[in-house]
Amino acid sequence: MHRNSRPQIRRRTTVLACGLSLLTAFAAPALADDASNYPTKPITIVVGYPPGGSTDLMGRLVGAELSTRLGQPVVIENLGGAGGTIGAQKVANAAPDGYTLLVGANNELAIAKLVTKNVKYSLNNFTPIGLIGSQPMVLVASTKSGVKNANDFTALVKKNPGKYSYGSSGVGTALHLAGEMVKEQGGLFMTHIPYRGVAPLTNDLVGNNLEFGVFVLSSGLPHIKAGKVIALGTTEAKRSQATPDIPALSEFPQFKKVDITSWFALMGPANLPQPVAAKLKKALNETLQSPDFRQKMAAAGSGVASPDVNMGRFLNDEVAKYTQIVQFAKIEE
Prior knowledge:
Blueprint: H1 2-36, E1 43-47, H2 54-70, E2 74-78, H3 85-93, E3 100-105, H4 106-115, E4 126-142, H5 150-159, E5 165-168, H6 174-186, E6 191-194, H7 198-206, E7 212-216, H8 217-225, E8 229-234, E9 261-269, H9 274-288, H10 291-299, E10 303-304, H11 311-329
Parallel strand pairs: 1-2, 1-3, 5-6, 5-7
Antiparallel strand pairs: 3-9, 4-7, 4-8, 4-9, 4-10
Helix pairs in contact: 2-9, 4-11, 6-11
């Protein structure tokens, strides 16, 4: 009995092994075939902010274009909270199949991990699809401050170190880092006041309860045009095409190295299959060259990125820039 059982066990083991090999052989082409046929169902784009903000607008503009080019519905999921990091974490944890994507900004992709210990993901948890576009931020003054331009601003703050404050939409946001870059470049001593969003910041600036503030251009422009705040300068190296009448801060000698933007990128989870990533990149590149898309972006105060941007190099350079600012300002949550 014992002698006869051993060959039987071997035969069963051999049959089982052959069966697993056949399953693996058939499964691998099936997975590859699924990737090559992508997409076959609706795609979700996660935006880590409530509806109505600049990142949400980017998500909706890009989502509409991707839907047309990929032939499937694209659903926007607003998952606000923690400066965009809740939405980013969801995409980092998602299955790498191309059906859950992120339209994210520099706050959650490049800054958050530098200032917040609770952020568990890193750039290695994403597959970069491409840069969508960017828009500058704008340094503004309240009408009560008496400041009309960047030179007035510098003179006033230097004459009264520590007396004046500037506001942003929160600690560790791109707006906060832009303000700290202005302080560093200008050799200024000011207090940062973090607000819980743009609305309360706007209320205090318009109500003359705060002297200075930093907005994303699209958020600040209506108040600038209405004369409720004074634009001192935008934060990109060159003037924005959307606001050619507002100087870039870099045009003033004391701020010549100020160059920081609010940018937006399309990302997938890490280990996205190559055929899926290639289709998404192709669709995004076609979007970036669409005249209709470019017109809508310009109306929102945003520039459109070049399809040729090397995302790995771009993201690494951005993290290096923000690391320097965070260390200068000793920002930590």
